Request: fold
Amino acid sequence: MKLFDIKIKITLWYTFFMILLVSGVLYIFVEFTGATILDKQKSELIEVVHDTIEDIEDRDDIKFFDDGVFILLYNEKGKFLDGTAPYGFSLDYPLKEGKIEKKSERDRSQFYIYDKKIQDRGGEEIWVRGVVSDSQTKQLTTTVLRIAFFGLPLLVIISSIIGYLITKRAFLPVKKIQETAENISNSNELSLRINLPYGKDEISKLGATIDKMLERVEQSFKKEKQFTSDASHELRTPITVILAESEYILEHGESLEEAKESMEVIKRQGNRVSALINQLLFLSRVDQGSVRLKRENLDIGKTVAELCEDNRIEASRKNIDIFMENLLHTKEFCLDKLLFIRAIQNILQNGIAYGKRGGFIKVKLFENREYLVVEVEDNGIGIAQDKLNKIWDRFYQVEESRNSKNFGLGLSMVKFIIEQHEGYVEVESSLGFGTTFRLYFKKV
Ligand code: ADP
Reply:
């Protein structure tokens, strides 16, 4: 459904409710105003009759029309003496003292009369009659109805137009959201944003949330693209070497010796491709969320000591010594054995790869109340401060390390493994002096 329709719908709905409301209010107004005016006229009637009696007694001038009340005087036999009567009122209604009476004439005009008998100074009885016509009440009611008849539709039209304009204005941000979404889906341009002005209302918050979400989607798209291009790049290098080597040996290879040398190169590059594919497969499982921890009780001291032992031969090629210090008082920790080994192995291999000839690697195991901590310190080439937060990104390698036989995936895996164990990583490094990694595995 179009946005336009919603605005019209909202306008129609509240116009309808407004008509109901205004009609109700008018009805109540007409009903009660009529009754109130009548009550007021009746009390006016009594008051004016009493004022006239006082005037007669004080021999003051008599007002025959006062505050909408007509005054008529009769003698004791009911003969009209003096006064002013409203148009259409017959003068010969019988006189009756005490209460207000309603009289209807043939022409449908209605009057309220109030009679009072007094004795004048000469001792003669005089009747004072007050008369009010209900035409005043009728007039007012007619005026109100007339106003309502013309005013109500006008009021409804004006407020509907104003209401429509307000609704249209209120819906502008929604229109902007819709247009941005449409532009993104038509152009595939994820960098577009809604950019609503800051506001505390729900729509502004929705706009800001969608913008934030778009930011994240764009980032992960970029990462995804980067990942595919980096992976292809990493695969291309060894494959090019394999192809070049096999072509050379096929065309120019003369001796078994030469063939063996080439096969050696091909095997090395093949291993490299295989290692990369394994890592990529692991990462794709990570992305799919299908890597599940298989926790088991592990003798950490023993496991890490074995890992150090396994790496000693490779370290010795660079004359690097590996030391281990075990300060743990707990022997076994419940961890995923394979992932734990993978994380520590990655850190140790980095220590060797980026260690200086004749340097050292110190592995220290300790624990606190919440975490098992594996600290690996080396006195290798170190990492510049501005690169420290990038080393956890996939395929990221500091310039100087680009030629290493690795792919820049190791630390991103370490981070993932630690996060799976509800832990965290710390790294301290000083360029040219060495690096210390601290891996915190949460105790369970
Ligand atoms: P790689 O496969 O290149 O070792 P990693 O993800 O393990 O990838 O590490 C990313 C980058 O961080 C490395 O390329 C290297 O530049 C830097 N790095 C990692 N460990 C160390 C270390 N112990 N000393 C110096 N630099 C390191």
Observations:
- The pocket of adenosine-5'-diphosphate is lined by residues 346, 350-351, 353-354, 378, 380-383, 391, 396-398, 401, 404, 406-412, 435 (CB under 6 Å).
